[in-house]
Amino acid sequence: MNARPGLVVIGNGMAGMRTVEELLKLDPAMYRITVFGAEPHGNYNRILLSPVLAGDKTVDDIMLHTRDWYAANGVTLHAGDPVVRIDRKRRVVHAQSGLAVPYDRLLIATGSKPFIVPVPGHALPGVIGFRDIQDVDTMLAAAQRGGKAVVIGGGLLGLEAANGLLRQGMEVSVVHVTGSLMNQQLDPPAADLLRAALERKGLRILLNRQTAEIFGDGHVQGVRFADGEEIGADLVVMAAGVRPNVELAKSAGLHVERAIVVDDTLQTYDPRVYAVGECVQHRRATFGLVAPIWDQARVCAAHLAGSGHRRYVQQATATKLKVTGVDLYSAGDIVGLEGSEDLVLRDRRGGVYKRLVVTGNRLTGVVLYGDVLDGPWYFDLIQKRTNIASFRDQLLFGQAHCEQAA
Fold first, then answer.
1. How far apart are CA 298 and CA 280, in angstroms?
2. Which residues have C-beta within 8 Å of that of residue 273, sequence separation ≥ 6?
3. Which entry of 29, 132, 182, 307 is 20 to 30 Å from 194 by CA?
4. Closest Cα to residue 6, out of 90, 67, 68?
5. Are 36 and 62 in contact (CB under 8 A)?
6. 357: three-class secondary structure by DSSP
7. What is the mean pLDDT of the chain?
8. Percentage of the chain with pLDDT > 90?
9. Which of these, 41, 85, 44, lies nearest to 61 by C-alpha position?
């Protein structure tokens, strides 16, 4: 009889496995740990799927935990065998294979799913999301056949998919519903610069397009927009955002709103069940960036290890991105509130754009395109609510100029 309590982890992705890593650091012998994953691999860095698609990395390059790692750390991995039911009354999880494993503590880290725009034809062969290794394999196979790809979604994920498919030799169109790319992170002038740079690389950018239908006979052949315009497509990639993957938690009777509701310890309404990552909702917020999810993993692991003095606190995050070779950075309020002013520097020839949003004597937002070196410094000024009055005139020129002026 093994006296150690059992911890079952549902989800073999970055959030769940980071929590396991943190737990093993605190107390490697506390639990018998069993991990279930839907994909037939170890845990890999999902953020690096784009370089795999572009041909810059291999799947082996992006593996974070190989099967040997699980064995060496005494973690039982059931890869390619997703959990289909949680019996909270008996404290047992049931996997697709029929395997049933009891738990003393349960960690749900089911992540998110691509949002497939529910237009007619969305289920046609050749219409896929961009979320896992299988999606990348599908895209690479399509690229080998050549032809036209349409990427629906002009955010970061869509642009990375488009760039990868372009690099693999396809003719690529990016379809975006609003008038500017990456509208969550960039203001319109920066988005215009990005659009021009992407078009120079050979991407076709179609803005203000509402997808009405995907059509084809047995396989996708094209996309039709609400105004009647049509474009041909041998492959359609849906990159129009993600939705928290909460069906399993919902069917187990856990409290779910937009995502699985957790408290400051990452505990659900069931004290034996914790959740981390893109499937959780904490104080009304959901999460898609690595930094907050790593914080969640540390806090959750501490509580699972019984040394739970930590509380998860949401922090403001900056977005530093490299889209197809173009450096971008944004943080804070990039829209600008009433009474705010914009400080703007444009160097079209140098491919540099900076916009600082100033409210009173405080920096409240920043958008950088092309030159992002001072991004972390600007973010620090925003976080600390630093009074910038003494160096406001030099602020656009960066940290070095401001320190000289001081």
1. 15
2. 88, 105, 106, 107, 108, 254, 267
3. 132
4. 90
5. no
6. strand
7. 93
8. 83
9. 44
pLDDT higher than 80, residue 248? yes
Which residue type sits at 151?
Answer: V
| The pLDDT value given to residue 2 | 60
User: Which of the four pLDDT bands, split at 50, 70 and 90, describes residue 386?
Assistant: very high
Give the contacts of 200 (CB within 8 A, at least 6 positions apart): none
Q: With a cut of 70, say whether residue 406 has pLDDT above it.
A: no
Residue 118 CB contacts under 8 Å (≥ 6 apart), including other chains:
none
- Is the CB of residue 107 less than 8 Å from the CB of residue 23? no
Structural tokens at position 163: 């760039």
Q: In the sheet where 127-129 sits, what is the strand order?
A: 127-129, 235-238, 148-152, 171-175, 204-206
DSSP state letters, 334-347: SS--TTEEEEEEEE
* Beta strands 230-232; 92-95: pairing state: unpaired
> Pick from 232, 177, 231, 174: which is nearest to 205 by CA?
174
